[in-house]
Amino acid sequence: MENILSMIGLLGGLFLLIFLTMKGVNIIIVGPISALFVALLSGMPLFPQLVEEGVPNFVTNYMTGFTGFIMAWYLMFLLGAIFGKVMEDSGAADSVAKFVTDRLGLKYAVLAIVIACAILTYGGVSLFVVAFAVYPMAISLFKQANLPRRFIPATLGLGSVTFTMTSAGSPEIQNWIPIPFLGTTPYAGWEVSIIVAIFMAIAGYMWLKKIITKAVKNGEVFDARENDPTFDTTRALPNPFLSFVPLIVVLIISFIFHDSLKQSALIIALLAGILATFIVSWKYFKSPWEAVSQGTLGAIIAIGNTAAVVGFGGVAKATPAFNVAVEAMTNIPGSPLIGAAVAVSVIAGMTGSASGGQQIALPLIAPGYLDAGVNAEALHRVVAISSGALDSLPHNGYVVTTIQSICGEKHSAAYWSMAATTVAIPVIGVILAIVLFSFGLGIQ
Prior knowledge:
Glcn_transporter, mainly alpha, about 0% strand, membrane
């Protein structure tokens, strides 16, 4: 009976998390409310004063998950957000995006936006900042091409949170979290990663084009709004080739130091990228110190949103139902990689966060799998790719921010096309990765 109530609490808490988020309630409020629901139905004591030291309770477990994630990743979030903001304020991000779109033309407006997002994301710019930076140009291109604007979130998502976010070498934290748990590098399983990334990019783009073309044939057109951002065509922008320099600096520095400093290499890489942006684009800045301040505030909001769902996971994983679910997922017959993919995907889906899902799942599954002889590089890549699949359910922070806050769309209009590019495609991608690793590709 205890396990049944706990499972009802776990599933009910997840439903509440999704429902309240879709209703527009702030995730920082939704996280603890949903976690409290889980705790109450699981019979978990609410306060540490009511139990002996070390015994699970709502406040301790929630805050341990919340603060633990911030302690581990705050500097990466901070520097990533500041890097993105100085790239935006200096015009370097616009210069890169314009360089790509000018060469592809209006006929390939969707592809241009996907590539611009991919370059910025793989260069280390925060996912949220990429969406903010590219959105004005996306509006401009969709308006000129007369394409339905409800597909802009799916286009931004395809370029930001699929084939770039979880690929080998990516500076995004979703590729770096497995490193301390598995003793790997950010380039783990790179051979398979390249194949999967190419598949996700091509398949995602073809699917997106197909559903946009179908909508256009059904009579959908661009719907202009008074508050639409306009791309400033009169502003002087830095040389596009110079604008690429900070992105290249981030990649090179992270490569040089990843062996010695592991995930801390990202701190040096992003700091170097910020300095490089100031050096190559200084005279083009509008308000550099304001950009730093905005980046700092953005980092606090972004990591707070993620930590809120990690805190939810901290309560959830202390319940009897969670342990039963994880045991079932990690004992799926067949390849251990399948169990890892399912476990990480489901937990990332429950928490609405790829990074949060990894942070919760890896301490539970990594030791047993490594002891069983599972290849660490294959496990790293499968975990990274699978974390970017079910995480993009409606309550995901990036999804909510991109659809509602940045693009001003409703979930009912924009989410399903976004689910096609950010959920379905990565799910197929992780299946492909498991198949390739099972045939021995990329395993030394």
